[in-house]
Each structure stands twice: as structure tokens, then as C-alpha cells.
Amino acid sequence: MLLAIIADTHLPRGPRQLPGSCVERLRAADLILHAGDFSALSVLQALEMLGPVAAVQGNADDRELCRRLPELRVVEADSARIAVVHDAGPALGRLARLRRRFPGVDAVVFGHSHLPLLERAAGGRAGRFQIFNPGSPTERRRAPHHTMGMARVEDGRLEFELVELD
Q1: What is the pLDDT of residues 139-148, one digit of tens each?
Q2: CA 24 to CA 20: how far, in whole Å?
Q3: Phi/psi of residue 12, nearest 5 degrees
Q4: Which member of 97, 124, 147, 157 has the lowest number of beta carbons within 10 Å of its beta carbon?
């Protein structure tokens, strides 16, 4: 199963739009995960025209989006369980904190900071646990590139990849 992962799109805003290479990857995915801060309902609706979407609300989303989307969700992707939340809290202790907050999941996908991140727990069964922030395809802020994520679930393994879009 192929997942396309984005967050912090903050659209519409002037002439800004999702990069073409991002849209191609979204179309190719079996499921699109969005970790919040679409900004407007029209962005969710546009993504749903590209494929199935599992999403959460962010702190910059309009009232209608917040009514439609949960603050967190757990997605079953083949044999992987992935929690999706917008704000994962402070960087210090984040991996351990999210592991405690979401027992029984293989990974947590989040956004908010616009800073891409992939971190894995060390050793044992917990070593399969990962946290992933795809950054932003449209508003990089302090990140060096516009980014998104891809993930593949095969034979019980969940592998994330960060994709630079520029």
C-alpha cells in the first residue's frame, strides 16, 4: 500500500498551489494522509478528487473543516496502524511522549512545525515505532525545501520517505 503524506498546505493563499510533482504523487497513492492546516474546506475537497483522504484538523483550519475533521485519528494501512495528529508538541521528548500517547500504533504522522522529521525508536518491538512530519509542500518557513512524504506498507513493514519538491 502506498501512502502520500502532506501537512500545512495553508491554501488558498494568493497564487500559491500544490507543486505538480506533489499532485502526481497524491494521485498515485492508495491513500492520502493530511496532518492538518489545510486552511479551507475547498482544499480538502480538491484532495478528495485525487483519491481517498484521511485527515485531521489543524490550528489554522476554518470552522467548517474543524466540524468535519477530528483532532486525531488512527488509520489502518494494510498491517500498519498510523496515528495522525496536527501538533505533536515540543521537540524535547517527542518520540517517547507520542509512543506513550498512542500505544499500539506503528507510527505517528504530524505537522504544525513545517519542519520535516523522521525519527525511530531504538531496539526491540518499540524499535518499529516511528514519528514522521512531512514538512509542507507550499510553505517551507524555516525548512530548506518544500517537502512531502511517501510511505509504503509491505509485509508488515512501514517505510517512510521524505520527498523534496524543489
Answers
A1: 999 999 999 9
A2: 6
A3: -80, 150
A4: 124
Comparing CA positions, the residue from 106, 59, 56, 52 lying closest to residue 79 is: 106
Domain boundaries, the chain: 2-164
Fold entry, domain 2-164 = Purple Acid Phosphatase; chain A, domain 2 (3.60.21)
Query: Which pLDDT score, from 0 to 100, does residue 152 have?
Result: 97
Residue 122 has pLDDT above 80, yes or no: no
Question: Which residues of 31-141 form beta strands (DSSP E)?
Answer: 31-34, 53-55, 72-77, 80-85, 107-109, 117-120, 130-133
Contacts of 21 (CB under 8 A, 6+ apart): 163, 165
CA angle 84, 90, 93 (to 5 degrees): 90
CB atoms closer than 10 angstroms to residue 97: 15
Q: Are 151 and 75 in contact (CB under 8 A)?
A: no
| Nine cell digits for residue 32 | 492520502
